[in-house]
Amino acid sequence: MRHGKKVMHLGRKTAHRKSMLANMACSLIEHKRINTTVTKAKALKQFVEPIITKAKDDTTHNRRTAFRYLRSKEAVADLFRDIAVKVGDRPGGYTRIIKLGNRLGDNADMAMIELVDFNDVYTNKEEAKKKTTRRGKAKKTADAAPVAEVAEETTEATDTPAAETEDTAQE
């Protein structure tokens, strides 16, 4: 019995496990989603989420810390340039694991791990529209007020000449 198990060993020695997780994290950052086994996806989630949290604050120290784990300049640059901007307001939970079923060859449980903000299917497009309508409402209300006043004046103006026309027609 292994009490206090904190690390998923994944059947590998420490150096091999760290290299594998670094490679998988670089692939996840580059492609925004990857397919792997469920256990590796869970281990990758624990590995990559603290790095993404560090990327939200773009400092030299955080870049060096991320490079220490990822070991790829391109992945670190992409992480701080694109991913950190999208997840800046999210307090955590940057990845999602979706189970795919079993692999044909060895019947291993497969899963897809992806970055949450980069999936168009699950992102709520109404929030983006809501933000644009807030800006638009301020403009529309400023424009709508004179239009409403003009509409009221028009109805009053049409009532008055119609009454005057009827009076002149009777005379």
What can you see in these coordinates?
- The mean pLDDT is 84.
- The protein folds into 2 domains: 14-118, Ribosomal protein L17 (50s Ribosomal Protein L17, Chain: A), CATH 3.90.1030.10; 124-171.
- It is mainly alpha-helical.
- It has a 3-stranded antiparallel β-sheet.
- Helices cover 63% and strands 12% of the residues.
Brief summary of the model shown:
This protein has 171 residues and is mainly α. It has helices at 14-31, 38-55, 60-70, 73-86, 125-170; strands at residues 33-37, 95-102, 109-115.
Order of helices and strands: HEHHHEEH
Count of DSSP strands: 3
**SS strand fraction:** 5-15%
The CATH topology of the largest domain is given as 50s Ribosomal Protein L17, Chain: A
The overall pLDDT average reads 84
Poorly predicted runs of 5 or more residues? none
Biggest sheet layout: 3 strands, antiparallel
CATH class of the largest domain: Alpha Beta
Query: What is the alpha-carbon Rg in Å?
Result: 29 Å
How many separate structural domains?
Answer: 2
Q: Name the CATH superfamily classification of the largest domain.
A: Ribosomal protein L17
| Architecture (CATH level 2) name of the largest domain | Alpha-Beta Complex
Broad shape: globular
Provide the helix percentage: 55-70%
How many helix segments? 5
Q: Termini, distance in Å? A: 109 Å
Query: Which structural class do the helices and strands define?
Result: mainly alpha
Strand order of the largest sheet: 1-3-2
